[in-house]
Automatic annotation (TrEMBL):
Residues annotated as signal peptide: none
Superkingdom, taxonomy of origin: Bacteria
A single GO molecular function term of this UniProt record: dTDP-glucose 4,6-dehydratase activity
Keyword set, alphabetical order: Lyase, NAD
Keyword NAD belongs to the record: yes
Lineage: Bacteria, Pseudomonadati, Planctomycetota, Planctomycetia, Isosphaerales
The protein, known as: dTDP-glucose 4,6-dehydratase
Source organism (scientific name): Aquisphaera giovannonii
Keyword Nuclease: no
E.C. designation(s): 4.2.1.46
Protein family: Belongs to the NAD(P)-dependent epimerase/dehydratase family. dTDP-glucose dehydratase subfamily.
Amino acid sequence: MEHAIKNILVTGGCGFIGANFIRLELAEREGPSITNVDALTYAGNPDNLADLAGNRRYRFVKADIADRSAIFDLVASGGFDAIVNFAAESHVDRSIDDATPFLRTNVLGTQTLLDAARAAKVPRYVQVSTDEVYGTLGPRDPAFEETTPLAPNSPYSASKAAADFLVRAAYHTHGMDTVITRCSNNYGPYQFPEKLIPLFITNALDGKPLPVYGDGMQVRDWIHVRDHCRGVAAALRRGRPGEVYNFGGRSERYNMDVTKAVLELTGRPETLIRHVTDRPGHDRRYAVNCAKSESELGWKQTVTFEQGLAETVEWYKANSAWIDRVRSGAYRG
């Protein structure tokens, strides 16, 4: 059964994945209207959706998802068919320095949204999570499945796992219609240049060093953000209540190989590679089994890593003004 979704509350829609989801929904579907609520912290960039300002199906509300008064008022008055929660503090290095903002947004914020959704009887709630909640894999371990026990290893992934448990509890305790999605490493347009691929692309274009953690042999499963957003849209409309759905790119790559691919696409030499001290508790390998999403949701990956990385490099080349505004902080107004 496909849920009829006409009015969506998207949280964290000025971030990388949320912005791409909003663009996908407005471009590929004629019906839904979207309200985007974002606190506009450092990773929430209004420039990501600036061209939608005149779109009658889109509106923006500045608010913190952990602000109970603001969120309860918004949800109560919105008449929403669904809430899709992308809002999150998501940078592992920052969580190692200070986990407090991660607990506020990822845990308290999620519970606030669940409480507001239950009070307003919102028909469906989708929690956008991460494969990092599963922990790490050995070289020959099978890929993460939805039934893999959660074993987070960083303050960031621990906060996301806690949020997932709260969503699970809302389903089992209160009978809420909730769905959780977990995805592997995303890349693509509008990604804040602190993450590996956009950082390495922008550094390479400027002839700056590319800092590779440790030996660079960590393995990640890369998925283009467009495929991830298509998966979230499928889970929103066709996911079974109380279920978890994994999305992956079937594109496991060593970080060092990704680094070299970026250098090749940007025409820069490998002498720009700099090995730096590894991150504390750095997970060695992620891989995602997305067979359940393929069979139940009719979803499948459409963008190969080679195609997607080449497109992403070209996007950053063509959007130097966006990069400059992020680096200077001008995007924060």
